[in-house]
Write a structure and sequence with these properties.
This protein is an alpha/beta fold and 459 residues long. Helix content is 37%, strand content 22%. Bound molecules: guanosine-5'-diphosphate (2 copies). One guanosine-5'-diphosphate (GDP) binds next to helix 1. InterPro entries: AAA+_ATPase, G_ENGA, GTP-bd, GTPase_Der, KH_dom-like, KH_dom-like_a/b, P-loop_NTPase, Small_GTP-bd.
């Protein structure tokens, strides 16, 4: 399970500046998939090869009312679910009563809190931050200038990493741990751990609230034998349901928590983005559900971004396809082409979870995506495909020198990773990388999963 780090503080202290700095790797992804919006609140970050989820909680001050309270709800939930909180204050403004209010709130949460004084550029940092010690949150005030990156690496490596590593070790014994994410792995280790095509498929049902996740989960379970049914430990966990279909074993990762819905007093299931992000990380294949009646929303695109970023296989289901007029269906299909054309590798199904229409065919695409993602590929084959691709279309020049791609090997599965070695390989433009990706996709007949290509410099 990926650790969650929440950025908390009053407005204007520099939360989104730090968020952007921490999640910058995401920009590469956005470039790879034009059409993706970057979520300004939830992102993936990495410190020394330890990935974590970072959340910008926006501006909360701990005593919101009315509309603010509603908007702050996800933020407060994020804090409750976070493994660590970076509490940001503004070194130029000094200690404010809002800071004290937030500190009081955080202290009650019993969380690991790092107090971070931002904007220490161009001022006498030590004297500026002295008063923040009054908040009595730990014995260090971390001094940073998020806008310039100053102090950020130290904050991450000296404070956050040890905490995240300790968390990783503590979770090592968990049943559904994803602790393999915590250490930098060699290609051989990644391959040794990757699932095989006959293995159990971990399938996560993903979608924003009300798209029909529980309806679909119920439908799937109604038609298949439920082997065991485990209730989740806490609200931040999804329900893991073992099941079987056509001789294939699955673990259904139910983010909607249908089990808890049976409790009449708890009808409204709280949607948690973090729970969803963790389910995505833990799955092999994600079934992303979109509501036909709402079209494609930013929230759908942001979930899609996370699925692609995690490298998970993907099947799209447009739900509530029942009772729609033909011209409405046409309009939705046009919108799908226009806005999701960039993920042309994913199968799209039009279903009605309510009536069961189309649900049975989902398995075929899930299976296909999983097999594509786990199919073993040999070094000779990927090198041969590289030769063909570069023969058909030479890599461009970089600063007057020809980029030479020499050989390739498999660097992991689920997602399939292809490692290409060459001269100036890292200088390849995005367009050529995309060309290679498509070439590999076609040659290896890979459907339903993103492919990752990594470049390594060899002289
Ligand atoms: P948020 O409301 O907490 O998300 O704050 P923002 O990240 O939007 O930053 C608020 C303002 O502070 C912006 O004008 C930033 O450019 C500025 N800012 C952020 N970090 C720094 C910093 O390290 N030094 C200085 N001088 N200004 C900063
Ligand atoms: P969740 O929040 O994603 O788990 O969504 P639910 O499964 O609770 O569904 C939300 C609402 O959409 C409920 O009122 C469902 O009855 C309705 N719904 C779900 N699937 C369909 C469908 O295929 N067609 C129609 N017309 N309504 C659906």
């Amino acid at each position: 399970m990926l650790p969650v780090v929440a950025l908390v503080g009053r407005p204007n202290v520099g939360k989104s500046t730090l968020f952007n700095r921490l999640t910058r790797s995401r920009d590469a992804l956005v470039a790879d998939y034009p059409g993706l919006t970057r979520d300004r609140q939830y992102g993936q970050a990495k410190v020394e090869d330890h990935p974590f989820i970072v959340i910008d909680t926006g501006g909360i001050n701990g005593n919101e009312q009315g509309i603010d309270a509603l908007m702050a709800e996800q933020s407060l939930m994020a804090i409750a679910e976070a493994d660590a909180v970076l509490f940001m204050v503004d070194a130029r403004d000094g200690l404010t009563s809002a800071d004290i209010g937030i500190a009081d709130y955080l202290r009650k949460q019993n969380k690991k809190i790092f107090l971070v004084a931002n904007k220490v550029d161009g001022i006498d940092a030590d004297s500026a931050v002295a008063e923040f010690y009054e908040l009595s949150l730990g014995d260090t005030v971390h001094k940073i200038a998020a806008a310039h990156g100053r102090g950020v690496t130290q904050l991450l490596t000296l404070a956050l990493t040890p905490h995240i590593e300790a968390l990783g070790e503590a979770r090592e014994n968990d049943e559904f741990d994803g602790t393999q994410e915590f250490s930098a792995k060699t290609d051989e280790e990644k391959i040794a751990e990757a699932p095989f095509e006959n293995d159990k498929i971990k399938l996560a049902i993903i979608g924003k609230p009300n798209v029909g996740k529980s309806t679909l989960t119920n439908r799937i379970l109604g038609e298949d034998r439920v082997v065991v049914f485990d209730a989740p430990g806490t609200t931040r966990d999804s329900v893991y349901i073992p099941m079987e279909h056509d001789g294939r074993e699955y673990t259904l990762i139910d983010t909607a928590g249908i089990r808890r819905r049976k409790n009449v007093t708890d009808v409204v299931e709280k949607y948690s983005v973090i729970k969803t992000l963790r389910a995505i990380e833990d799955a092999n294949v994600c079934l992303l559900i979109i509501d036909a009646r709402e079209g494609i929303t930013d929230q759908d695109l942001s979930l899609l971004g996370f699925i692609l970023e995690a490298g998970r296989s993907l099947v799209l289901a447009v739900n509530k396809w029942d009772g729609l007029e033909e011209h409405v269906k046409d309009r939705i299909k046009t919108e799908l082409d226009r806005r999701l054309g960039f993920i042309d590798f994913a199968r799209i199904h039009f279903i009605s979870a309510l009536h069961g229409t189309g649900v049975g065919h989902l398995y075929e695409s899930v299976e296909e995506a999983f097999i594509s993602a786990t199919k073993r590929i040999s070094t000779s084959m990927v090198t041969k495909i590289l030769d063909m691709a570069t023969f058909d279309h030479q890599p461009p020049m970089s600063q007057g020198r020809r980029i030479k791609l020499k050989y390739a090997h498999a660097g992991g599965y689920n997602p399939p990773i292809i490692v290409i070695h060459g001269n100036l390989a890292k200088k390849l433009p995005v367009s050529y990388k995309r060309y290679l990706m498509n070439y590999y996709r076609k040659s290896l007949k890979i459907m339903g999963t993103p492919i990752r290509i990594e470049f390594r410099e060899t002289s």
